[in-house]
Design a protein that fits this description.
- The structure is a single chain.
- The chain is of the alpha+beta class.
- The chain has a single domain, classed as 2-Layer Sandwich (Alpha-D-Glucose-1,6-Bisphosphate, Chain A, domain 4).
- Helix content is 27%, strand content 44%.
- The radius of gyration is 15 Å and the shape is globular.
Length: 152
């Protein structure tokens, strides 16, 4: 059962600057509370459709790595990637960027694709009981840190 969450924030920076920051997955640890590091897989060094990367996540003593696959990379407009583990696509994350008079409006969204049967494994692995609430908190924090960095 797919559950989609979207949070939007205005950022006083150009759409191109926001895109450059969020699509450079090696910088994700600067913005995200949960994903502390990412690196592109061999053969990739930037955001193009089909590029893959590892995202290293943590919550307290819980740590896990997921594989990201870029499915949309439109400079200044959108960046979207699928997350998988053990060849199971469990979520999709994305950013939509729209120009405004003072910069841009950024919507970060996630779509949780885990079936009911995978929830217990996910809770044990991550230590997170309510994934939707956790994503709501971390997305808000990510957008706040991104804005703080780009609006300097």
């Amino acid at each position: 059962m797919a559950e989609r969450l979207e949070i939007t924030r205005d950022i006083a920076a150009s759409p191109d600057a926001v895109y450059a920051a969020i699509s450079d997955v090696t910088r994700m640890g600067e913005w995200s509370e949960e994903c502390h590091a990412c690196e592109w897989h061999e053969g990739y060094d930037g955001p193009v459709v089909g590029a893959t990367f590892d995202g290293h996540n943590r919550n307290g003593e819980h740590e896990w790595t997921s594989k990201g696959t870029v499915v949309e990379a439109e400079p200044g407009r959108s960046f979207v990637f699928e997350c998988s583990m053990f060849d199971f696509h469990f979520s999709t994350w994305g950013y939509r960027i729209e120009p405004t008079d003072t910069g841009c409006r950024v919507t970060e969204w996630s779509e949780d694709l885990r079936p009911e049967s995978a929830l217990e494994f996910s809770k044990k692995m991550s230590g997170i009981d309510d994934r939707a609430e956790r994503n709501r908190q971390t997305i808000s924090g990510t957008l706040d840190r991104l804005a703080a960095a780009l609006e300097r």
